[in-house]
Amino acid sequence: MLTTIRSLCIAILVAAVGATAHAADSYAVDPVHSSVSFKSLHAGISYIHGRFDDVSGQFVIDKDDPAKSSFALSIKTESVNTNNAKRDEHLRAPDYFNVKQFPTLTFQSTSVKAVEGGYETTGDLTLHGVKKPVTFTLKGGDKTVEFPKGMMRVGFTVLLSIKRSDFDMKTGLEALSDEIFIDMGVEAVKQ
Predict the structure, then answer these.
(1) How far is 18 from 16, CA to CA, in rounded Å?
(2) Rounded to the nearest 5°, which phi and psi values hold at 94?
(3) CA 152 to CA 144: how far, in whole Å?
(4) How far is CA 49 from CA 91, 141, 188, in A?
């Protein structure tokens, strides 16, 4: 009888611990509700704006242990769009993105930590065949919403800048600024 009660207590304890354990949540980027845009100073007088139309990625978010979270994003460089077909073709050429040789721009996190308003994320940005570490803050992620019914989603925004010369994109530095400003709004759906 004592053995049965002890076994029952252990089973209840294991069930209680299992019920309170939190599993990380996996999300897939929703390209319909996500955008990656950029701007570059032209001739030192005004900005030219553009975006990428093909964005995908995966997030794993562990709110109990943010260090176990991860963020991955992939962008097809051929999807560059500055609302000018001739300029876009030039940006796809070897002078700039060289989309035939480097069809994707990727980011893969290597460390994540919670900060006020989001997550400080460090990872490898690979652009034009060059991989460099970058750190930025993903703002958001503190709440999920159900939209449409049955689809739980999370969202983040990011503002950062990079130097294109760091990624061996040095063409036209006298006309287009080296510093590129990137603005992302990304929504992801829970899997």
Answers:
(1) 5
(2) -55, -25
(3) 6
(4) 13, 27, 24
Pick the CATH number of 23-190 from 3.40.50.970, 3.40.980.10, 3.10.180.10, 2.40.128.110: 2.40.128.110
What residue type is 29 in one-letter code?
V
Beta bridge partners of 63: none
| Cα 158 to the center of its chain, rounded Å | 8
Q: Which of 86, 76, 71 shows the shortest CA–CA distance to 51?
A: 76
Dihedral of the CA atoms 100, 28, 50, 93 (nearest 10)?
0
Return the SS3 of 50: strand
Q: What is the pLDDT of residue 23?
A: 83
Residue 63 corresponds to which amino acid?
Answer: K
CA distance 24 to 110: 17
Q: Evaluate if pTM is beyond 0.90.
A: no
Give the tens place of pLDDT for each residue, 18-60: 444 568 999 999 999 999 999 999 999 999 999 999 999 999 9
| Residue-wise pLDDT tens digits, 75-126 | 999 999 999 999 999 999 998 999 999 999 999 999 999 999 999 999 999 9
